[in-house]
Amino acid sequence: MSESNSSSSRVTWEGCSVLLDINDGDRLVFARLSPAAKLKIGNKNCSLQPLIGRAFGTVFQVDTAPNGPYLSPAQVNVNNAEEIGDGQGNNEMDKVNVNNAAQARDGEVNVESRDNRALVDNNTAQSLTGEDIEAMRRQGARGNEIIEALIANSATFEKKTSFSQEKYRLKKQKKYAPKVLMRRPVARSICEAYFKKYPSKIGFLRVDTLSLLLSMANVSSNSDILVVDMVGGLLTGAVAERLGGTGFVCNSYFGQAPYSMDIVRIFNLSDEICKRILRSPISDLLPKESPEQVLEHDVCNVESQSNDQTSALASMDEISHSSENGISDIGIENTEPAIEIRKAPKAGERPQKEIIDSWRENGFSSLIVAAPELDAWTLVRDLLPLLANSAPFAIYHQYLQPLATCMHNLQLEKMAIGLQISEPWLREYQVLPSRTHPCMQMSAFGGYILSGTKICNSTANSSSNRTVLL
Amino acid sequence: MLASDPAKKNSFNRSINNGDLVIVYERHDNMKAVTVSEGTVLQNRFGIFKHSDWLGKPFGSKVFSNKGGYVYLLYPTPELWTLVLSHRTQILYIADISFVVMYLEIVPGCLVLESGTGSGSLTTSLARAVAPTGHVYTFDFHEQRAGSARDDFERTGLSNLVTVRVRDIQGEGFPDEFTGLADAVFLDLPQPWLAVPSAAKMLKEDGTLCSFSPCIEQVQRSCEVLRTSFTDIRTFEVLLRAYEVREDKLESIEGNGDGSNGSLPCKRRQCSDGGNVMSSPISSVMARPCIEARGHTGYLTFARLRCLI
Ligand SMILES: C[S@@+](CC[C@H](N)C(=O)[O-])C[C@H]1O[C@@H](n2cnc3c(N)ncnc32)[C@H](O)[C@@H]1O
Q1: Same domain, B59 and B95
Q2: What band does B43 get if pLDDT is binned at 50, 70 and 90?
Q3: Where along the sequence do coiled-coil regions lie (chain B) (predicted)?
């Protein structure tokens, strides 16, 4: 495959993976583009063929043609605020801001002459019937024309505050003129999409937390990064993306069965990058002498740990189920398996012996763990010796206590320095003229990270020197 | 700092040589960048450390002074560098830096424009993200600062990935030679809105922009200007809360607390409600947020160049 068909390309191609954002995040769908691929939008089945060869960032709309509905690039309306004619006369109402504004309550608008005291909510406000709309459609009316007609036939629209007018318009737009924004599936967008729709699949790893893991572990070209990824492959994919086809990411696992890495396939990783993703049981990486013992120990530990957490896991499942249709949407919708086969080198091969030997000799450049179900301390105790000296590491966990215990033990054993537990905190703001404030919705939970730097084993650490360094 | 030669890897097992940059670690809040120079010494409260003792030792080693005190010698990373660099300006720290790199979607091979360079704290991480094939062009109108930053990138071994130039970006915009070539633009300027039109011109279709501003008024003005040619405009604040961990013995309460079965004389105390507390200390590892924390750094506003079909 050519160089351009990779993560860096800004135009789609056949076989490319895309993130489709329908109606400003209402639905998020990962899809692989092929002439045969279809996506149901509203009650219409649309071919994804028109998306091939288009720039990422393009917005599509559903148009009707004699031979059925099809997706066509939407004319971007840079300044639709003028259509509202509310006297504010600025261009504040672009897509994103409308979306944010919709979260705010009516009446928050400072510069507003109308209020909603005269509004009576009965169902007679709209004189256009469903049949009328269908008839318009049959005559080839576009979504925007239907919306304008709905507004023209609404008895209450004129009386609404400009704020409510925009909300009304947005509601109708979603129903009659759905927008499909085509995004590049990269670590940021993939993490955000999962966090929004299916957070339990990625261990509730928020995008800022993921970004911290990557920098705290100094993920950089030509490094060999050891990861324990029980977040569906998101971490592995994000590391591979940063390595850009150099070095290796070693996705390691305890026991016989590798952990799922499905999310890696959603990234548009080039063949060169895929080849750099290797998968190995941890027992293969350990020094030759008696790997059995260590491994058994860990496996039983893992089991007892996950039993303890049954209740916690069950509650997470509930959360994800309650996000309704989000679930079915997330995940690759691929109607053309042939394309999958054509993608030659698969990510996740077993490392060759020479590579393992070089890891054993030089040590890994760093370690990242995102394993919500494993005990942090036993894991780090076994994996830290596989790192080169002075290598940084970053351990993510949803709970504070396992990391606190791990940090304490690392201090006692003098295995690492610069130890720190941090909790990322992220707040988004709505920025609008005279209406700037923190967004109503915020994720209160970004998990915890234990980070530090491995130090040289001070030979059997018998001579405990002065006090424990932090 | 970064391995440019794939054969050499970023392996720290490599031992310390004359001329290497090392991070001397005393405590997590006390580190220093030192360029190893045979015949030189490092002097601190723990005594005198001879550089010649360090040669040949692996990174991550503990080394001793004439008085038996010790420090660790660490391999420099952008994270450590941010903690030791000389502050010629306000700088960005790890939380903001990490988020910026991820949200701007910077990956190896990207071309990134930045202004101002300041102390080069962010630039160092941008360089790591675009390596080995991308490049960061960073601009500051302060000649001396630009010079010091250039020296720093030489010292950290990043000069093949970073170019520092002196230019008034608010006044003149970015140079025309980058028109339509930038994958991402980062602004840390007092009046970022003045540089936004130029940034838009530099970006590729769907390219990303970030502006860092400490004050909300700056954000407000930037967003107004961004709306003309950008979409997906979002403003965030990111912070890190650090925790401290310690093991301590806590007294546990035995009996029903009314003092009736407390016959042991050891360590008895009056509770506020008049009951007795029996102590039988249990050791446990506990965590709590550190008392001092950074409450605000700045707002990060991100935007994406709008695609006009
Ligand atoms: C706060 S510092 C940037 C710090 C940097 N982000 C870091 O992490 O080290 C802001 C810099 O912008 C520079 N600056 C201010 N106005 C400028 C202008 N018009 N053009 C170029 N640089 C400018 C200042 O000289 C200063 O060095």
Answers
A1: no
A2: very high
A3: none
CA A34, A35, A36, A41 dihedral sign is positive
Note whether B220 and B84 are same-domain residues. Answer: yes
Q: Same structural domain for residues A263 and A179?
A: no
Number of domains in chain A: 2
Q: Sorting pLDDT into bands at 50, 70 and 90, what band is A430?
A: very high
Q: Both B214 and B301 in a single domain?
A: yes
pLDDT attached to residue B24: 97
Residue in chain B nearest A419 by alpha carbon: B28
Please tell me the distance in Å from A330's CA to the nearest CA on chain B: 21
Of A210, A423, A470, which is closest to B241 when you measure between CB atoms?
A423
Contact A58 B241 (CB under 8 A): no
Domain boundary among B53, B76, B99: B76
Segments forming the whole domain that contains residue B267? 247-255+263-287
Q: What is the pLDDT of residue B309?
A: 62
Residue B122 sits at the chain A interface (C-beta within 8 Å)? no
Cβ–Cβ contact B7 with A under 8 A:
no
Identify the pLDDT of residue A78. Answer: 53
Average pLDDT over residues A243-266: 94
A323, pLDDT greater than 50:
no
Task: Please give the residue that has the higher pLDDT: either A41 or A110.
Answer: A41
The single residue listed with the structure tokens 């993560």 is: A7
> What is the reported pTM?
0.84
- Beta-carbon contacts below 8 Å between A and B: 257
Cα(A104) to centroid of ligand 1, in Å?
35
Write the pLDDT tens digit of every residue in B64-119.
Answer: 999 999 999 999 999 999 999 999 999 999 999 999 999 999 999 999 999 999 99
Residues of B whose CB is below 8 A from A59: 307
B62 and B192 together in one domain: no
User: Could you give the count of Cα atoms lying within 13 Å of A150 in the half-sphere of its Cβ?
Assistant: 23
- Mark whether A100 and A134 lie in a shared domain: yes
Q: What is the DSSP string of A105-159?
A: PTT--SS-S--STT----TTSB---HHHHHHHHHTT--HHHHHHHHHHTBSSGGG
Question: Residue A318 falls within a domain, yes or no?
Answer: yes
- If we measure between CA atoms, which residue out of A46, A41, A40 comes closest to residue A65? A46
- In a domain, residue A463? The reply is no
Identity of the residue numbered B229: S
pLDDT at B262 over 90: no
User: How many CB atoms within 10 Å of residue B256?
Assistant: 10
The complex scores an ipTM of 0.91
Residue A14 has pLDDT above 80, yes or no: yes
Identify whether residues B184 and B218 lie together within a single domain: yes
Binding-site residues, ligand 1, Cβ < 6 A: B 89-92, 115-116, 118-122, 139-142, 145, 168-171, 188-190
Look at residue A470 and tell me if it is in a domain: no
Is the CB of residue B227 less than 8 Å from the CB of residue A79? no
Of B76, B95, B127, the last residue of a domain is B76
H-state helical runs in A198-255 = 207-216, 234-243
